[in-house]
Design brief:
The protein is built from 8 helices and 9 strands. By secondary structure, it is of the alpha+beta class. Strands 1-2-3-5-4-8-9-7-6 form a 9-stranded antiparallel β-sheet, sandwiched between helices. The radius of gyration is 17 Å and the shape is globular. InterPro entries: CDP-diacylglyc_Pase (IPR003763), HIT-like_sf (IPR036265). It holds the Pfam family CDH.
Length: about 240
């Protein structure tokens, strides 16, 4: 069997699991990464053993990939994410956006790429995963209009984005570097251990008047409203 056929067969073997109802198996992503990817890479696109994560093509969308830790980290509520020694998975996710670009006619513009983590109540899987994909056209336009009014301290955005009333801050730089969005959010909370899980967390590339950077967004999740709402898995902005 060729390598391509083996990878295809492995991916297809997980189709029933990934398309099953959300309540059917909340450990599917963990099983894929732990039982398959760390052993033989496939069906993941890559495994970074040094940084403890894998990249998996999501079955939804034309270009969406997921960054998934290879250690057991249930989600945004995990105490591991409050440990400064834990890898900066958002920075890693941004560095892997070439896997999204490779599935599109051209590279996604900086202000069209987003990284999203859903709150505990707004997700179906109990393994941390960062959605890396195109921003929706509506979200892109709203954030572009507000970009130069966003400061380095958390403040509410003047406009809703994808139905969310986000609080936002700006980060300067081509990459996130040492800025860890999980830790930045935790600093705003009275009891991070109890409150982190209530929050969606999103990072979007930005082109500010004074140079490249990022817009970081968070809100307390409402029923069925996750950070992923800002994304468009059909990548309409690239058409």
């Amino acid at each position: 069997m060729t390598v391509f056929r083996r990878v295809t067969a492995l991916a297809v073997s997980f189709l029933p699991l990934l398309f099953a109802p959300a309540f059917a198996d909340s450990e599917v992503l963990w099983k894929i990464v732990h039982d398959k990817c760390v052993v033989q890479t496939a069906p993941c696109l890559s495994v970074n053993t040094a940084e403890h994560y894998a990249i998996l093509k999501d079955l939804r969308g034309i270009a969406q990939v997921l960054l998934i830790p290879t250690d057991k980290i249930t989600g945004i509520e995990s105490a591991a994410l409050l440990d400064p020694a834990t890898h900066n998975f958002f920075a890693d996710a941004w560095s892997e956006h070439g896997d999204v670009d490779a599935r599109l006619p051209r590279a996604v513009p900086r202000d069209g790429l987003s990284l999203a983590v859903n709150a505990q109540q707004a997700r179906s899987q109990n393994q941390l995963h960062i959605h890396v994909d195109c921003l929706s056209a509506e979200a892109q336009a709203a954030l572009k209009a507000d970009a130069d009014h966003i400061g380095t301290d958390w403040a509410p955005l003047p406009d809703t984005v994808a139905g969310h009333q986000f609080t936002a801050l700006r980060v300067k730089g081509e990459t996130l570097g040492d800025f860890n969005p999980f830790l930045a959010l935790a600093k705003t909370l009275k009891d991070p251990a109890k409150e982190m899980g209530d929050h969606n967390l999103v990072v979007v590339g930005a082109n500010f008047a004074d140079g490249p950077g990022f817009i970081v967004l968070t809100d307390v999740a409402r029923p069925s409203m996750g950070g992923e709402d800002v994304q468009d898995h059909s990548c309409t902005i690239m058409h």
